Amino acid sequence: MKNFVTAFVPVLLAGLVGQALVADQSTWLPSAFTLHCVKCHGKADTIEGDVDLLGLSSNAALEARPELLERLIQVLKDREMPPEDQPPVPAVDREQMIKELELMFGKVVKTQPFNPTPIRRMNRFEYNNAVVDLLELDRDIFQINERLLRRRQDYFHPETKTMPAEVRVSSRPLSKDIDNERPEGFRGVAEFAQDKRAEHGFDNRADHLTLSPLLMESFLTLSQAIVASPDLNPQECRVWNQLFASPAKPADVDSTAVDIEAIRPRLAKLLRRAFRRPVDPEILDQLAVFTQGKLAAGGSFEDAMRAAVGAILGMPGFLYFIETSGETHAEDSHLDDESGGRQRINDFELASRLAHFFWSSIPDDTLLDLAEAGTLSDPTTLGQQIDRMLNDQKSSRFCDNFPAQWLQLERLITSVPDPRKFAYFYEGDGYRTSMHMIAEPLLLFETIYIEDRSIVELLDPKFTWQSDMLRANYEGNANAGHDVGVQIFKRVKVDDPRRGGVITNAAVMTMTSTPTRTQPITRGAWVNAVIFNDPPEPPPADVPPLPEGDQAKLSTLTIRERLAEHRKRADCASCHNKLDPLGFALENFGPTGVWREQYENGREVDPSGILFNQHMFTSLIEFKGLILAEKQRFIRGFIAHVLSYSLGRELGPADSLALDDITAKAMAGEDQLRAILKSIATSEPFLQKNTRGFARPQTKVNTQLR
C-alpha cells in the first residue's frame, strides 16, 4: 500500500496544486485522478500497485478505501510528496487538502468495523503467569528468557510511586548463569518454544498464536508435568489447603463421602478462575465425575485433585482467550452480522482483557466477582479497578513484556562488536557489555511507570541508570571491572544533552550496527518504526549491497557517501528520504554507542538532515530538540503501540478516533504513562469487539483428559 501511495501521490498533488476546490465536493478528487493519474493507474496494461484509479469515480469510492485515505493524509502532513523534482505545494493548498481529506476520513471511520479479534491461545509468558496466579505459586514454572531484565531485589512497588536510588538486576538471556540461588522453574517441567514477535508487532498477536496438534500435545504434556512436579507442594502453593489438601473428616462420617462432597465446590471455584467466565455445568459435572473416579480407583485426595488440575491446564478453555459473538454461543453468527463489526464486550471478557493487558495473565477473583455482578463495566468501578491493577506488583509483567518488545531489544542479544576493534566491550571469557546495556532503557521505562511520569521523558529524561561497566563503555574504557551475576545500577543525573532516553542509549546504537560499522538506514528504520510507529516497507529485492570494489577508494569515503548510490534509484529514494535523516542524526554514536566526531579515516561525521521534510538540523542535539517539538507524533505512535499490544491485534482505521482522542488528552497534560494506560483500557477499541469468522473451540472434558 505504501509503495502504491508513494507512486501516485506526486501526480495527484501536481493536479491539485493551484486548483480551487470545485463546488461539487463529490467529484474533485476523482477528477484529479482522471486527469493526472490514469496514465499509470487506470489503463489495464499500465496499472501500478494493483489499483485502478478510474474505478474511483466519486468521493464515495475513495471513502470506501479508509486505509488509502489515512495514508494520503499522512504523506501530505509529512510533505513526503511531491518529490524533490516537482514544484512544492503551496501551504494554503496543502492545508485545504488535508482538511478535506480529514473530514472525509473522520466521517468514514465512525462506522468502520474494528479489526476482528481472533480467538487466540496464551503465549508462553502468559501461560506461565496464568498457572502461577491460578495456583498461587511462589515461582515461575519454567525459565522465561523473554524476560530480559531480572530484578534481584524487591524494588517494584508501583503503589509507592518511588524507585530507589540503586537497584540490583541481571540479564539472564545474555549470561551463562545468574548465581547460586534456587533454579528457575519447577523440577521436571520443560518449557515449550518461545513465541516470536509479529513483524512490527508483539508476541501476543492473535493471528500468530495458533495451536497446532503438535503444540496442543506439548501443552497436554506440560500440564501433566506441572502437577507431577515435586515443587507443587504446600510450601510453594499458597492455595494448597483450599485445593489439594484433604478436607477435615469427623470421626463418625465416611471419609470417602466427605472427599467426594469437597471436590465439586473446589473445582467450581478453580474453573471460574481458569476459564475466566461462569462455570459450564456440563464441564463441571464431567470434571467432578473424572476426579471422583480417581478417588474410587484408590487414589488419594491429593492425587485426584492433581489429576483434575492437570486436566484443566490442558483444556482449550484455559489455553484460549475466547470472545464470543453474542452473550452465549459463537455459533449465533447472525448476531455479529447485525453489529457491523462493533459489539460491546461483556464484563467477563473485559476482565480477561484487563488481566491480559496489565498482568499478562488471568483475572483474579475481585475482577470475576464484579463481572459476575455485572458492575465491572461501570465507568467508576472500571476506573477503580484499573488503578488497583496498575498498583499491583503483578503489573511488573507489563514492564517485563511490553518495553523490551516495543524497543526490539532482543536484537541486542545477537550483537557482537568486533573484539579487535572494540576490546573494551568484552571482559574475561566473552562477557559482553551488552548485559549492562540492556538494563538502561528498561530501568528507565520502569521508572516512568512506577513514578507515573510523562512518556515524553522516555525521549528526554533528566536522569538515567548506570553501572560502572556501562559508564566505562560510554567512555570507551575497559578498566572498570564488571558484575556478572548481579549488576548494580545507580540512578544518575544526565548532564550531557547527547545522553538519556530510549533513542540515544548504547543498547540501541549497538544493536543497529554491524560488528564493524554503524548502519544509518537500520537506525533510521528503527526510529521510524519504534518512535513514530511508521515502519518502512521492505526494500526491493534487487537492491545491490554497498559497493566493495576499490577498497582504497572506499576507505576514504564516509558512510553517507557510500550510501548515496541507493538514493539514485527512484524506487529507493522515497524511503531513503524518510529514513536517512533519522539514521544519520545518530551517526556520532559508533557501533557500541561511544561518541565520535570523526571516522577512522579522519573524515568528519556529518549528522545533519531534514526532519519530516521541513525541519533542518545540523547536530544530534538539534535533532532531539525537533523530535520534542514534534512530540505529538511520538505520543500518538507510542499510544498506537500500546493499544495494539493491549488488543493483541493489528490496528485498523476504526481505531484512529480513539488514538486521536487519547493523544489529545496527552497533549493537554494527561501524558503520564499510567494515565495513558487507563485511557486505553477505557477506549472504544478496548471495550468493543468484532468476532466475525472466528468459532469457539470445543471444551468438552472427555476429549482433553489424560
Placed side by side, the strands forming the largest sheet appear as 2-3-9-8
Parts with pLDDT < 50 across at least 5 consecutive residues? 1-29, 32-49, 175-180, 327-337, 695-706
Q: Specify Rg, calculated over alpha carbons.
A: 28 Å
Q: Based on DSSP secondary structure assignment, what is the total number of beta strands?
A: 12
- Major beta sheet summary: 4 strands, antiparallel
How many helices in DSSP terms?
Answer: 31
Global outline: globular
What is the helix fraction of residues, given as a range?
40-55%
* Class based on secondary structure composition and strand pairing: mainly alpha
How much is the average pLDDT? 83
Task: State which percent range the strand residues make up.
Answer: 5-15%
Distance from first to last alpha carbon? 49 Å
Give keywords.
706 residues, two-stranded antiparallel sheet, disordered C terminus, single chain, 31 helices, disordered N terminus, mainly alpha
